[in-house]
Design a protein that fits this description.
By secondary structure, the protein is an alpha/beta fold. The protein contains 10 helices and 11 strands. The strands form 3 sheets. It has a 6-stranded parallel β-sheet with strand order 1-11-8-7-5-6, with helices on both faces. A 3-stranded parallel β-sheet has the order 3-2-4, with helices on both faces. The protein binds NADPH dihydro-nicotinamide-adenine-dinucleotide phosphate (NDP).
Length: about 290
């Protein structure tokens, strides 16, 4: 069997065009441009690249982007004061604090300070709670992108056995809620799960989000299953860093029915969902102004 590839890059491109149209419609209707503020603390090179990519994506989608850089030694109070200002700013509909943050800053304290209506990362406890109760909320971008990949490929979710490997607040846990919302039967695995390959082999949809390179092998995959590889690791090959996923791609291609690989799967969808969340946040804020 050769798995059909669920190409997240192509899908993200298409969705970003849709968001561009939606942002333009919103601006026509309200005379307001959706705005996203990104806070970058310190000079982590990977974070700089991520933030630049987000700014570029905003520009292409007609979303106003505001970047606020703070030095690596910024105090938590300075970060909180900046968030307070952005919370009050009517041109800003989404606020994102680029992770990781320096040691002196507690990510949760910062995330809790963001107005939940502007929390386009979906990390605020209010949004987490609302998601778990099945209420309207802003949802974390990566799991949202995974659902979009499945839905746009018409892969049935209702009644299926879904196995998620990884239980982080960013990916694994919100993924559970989104799959439950779609009426899947969900199993969540982590580093203490026993007989992990056997549990994964039971999955109709297997979602790997651990950061453990090539952990998911051929015998972890039920023939014909759908495999979504969220993991991002880097391997040095001939002096260059090459992105790898949690899933052994070649083996998965031989076994799975559908594969959304890393790179080229959920990764590109994450930024597309950030843009979607920003437009959604802008709409909700103007509706309730
Ligand atoms: P975390 O490190 O927060 O969580 C990793 C999870 O994987 C934990 O629940 C951990 O278990 C579990 N885990 C680790 N090792 C094993 C193992 N050997 N067997 C079973 N479970 C294991 O990572 P994130 O959730 O933030 O990210 C996961 C991966 O997804 C990373 O590679 C990250 O780079 C990538 N990612 C990609 C994004 C994208 O845009 N595509 C966005 C976000 C993340 P335990 O809880 O027991 O420690």
């Amino acid at each position: 069997m050769t798995a059909q590839i669920l190409d997240g890059k192509a899908l993200a491109k298409m969705i970003r065009e849709e968001i561009k149209a939606e942002a333009a419609r919103f601006t026509r209707e309200t005379s307001v441009r959706p705005g996203l503020a990104v806070i970058l603390i310190g000079e982590d090179p990977a974070s700089q690249v991520y933030v630049r990519n987000k700014e570029k994506a905003c520009g292409e989608a007609g979303i106003h982007s505001i970047r606020r850089d703070l030095p690596a030694n910024a105090s938590q109070d300075e970060v909180l004061a900046l968030i307070d200002r952005l919370n009050m700013d009517p041109t800003v509909h989404g606020i994102l604090v680029q992770l990781p943050v320096p040691k002196q800053i507690a990510p949760l304290v910062v995330q809790e300070r963001v107005d939940p209506r502007k929390d386009v990362d979906g990390f605020h406890p209010i949004n987490v709670g609302r998601l778990s109760m099945g209420l309207e909320s802003l949802v974390p971008c990566t799991p949202l992108g995974v659902i979009e990949i499945l839905k746009r490929a018409n892969i049935p979710i209702k009644g299926t056995n879904c196995v998620i490997v990884g239980r982080s607040n960013i990916v694994g846990k919100p993924m559970v809620q989104l799959l439950l919302r779609e009426h899947a039967t969900v199993t969540v695995c982590h580093s203490r799960t026993q007989n992990l390959p056997a549990v994964c082999r039971n999955a109709d949809i297997l979602i790997a989000a651990t950061g453990q390179m090539h952990m998911v092998r051929k015998d972890w995959i039920k023939p014909g299953a759908t495999v979504i590889d969220v993991g991002i690791s880097f391997e040095e090959v001939n002096g260059k860093f090459v992105q790898r996923g949690d899933v052994h791609r070649q083996e998965a291609e031989e076994t799975a029915g559908f594969l959304s690989p890393s790179p080229g799967g959920p990764g590109p969808m994450t930024i597309a969902m950030l843009l979607a969340n920003t437009v959604k946040a802008a709409r909700l804020q103007l509706a309730h102004a």
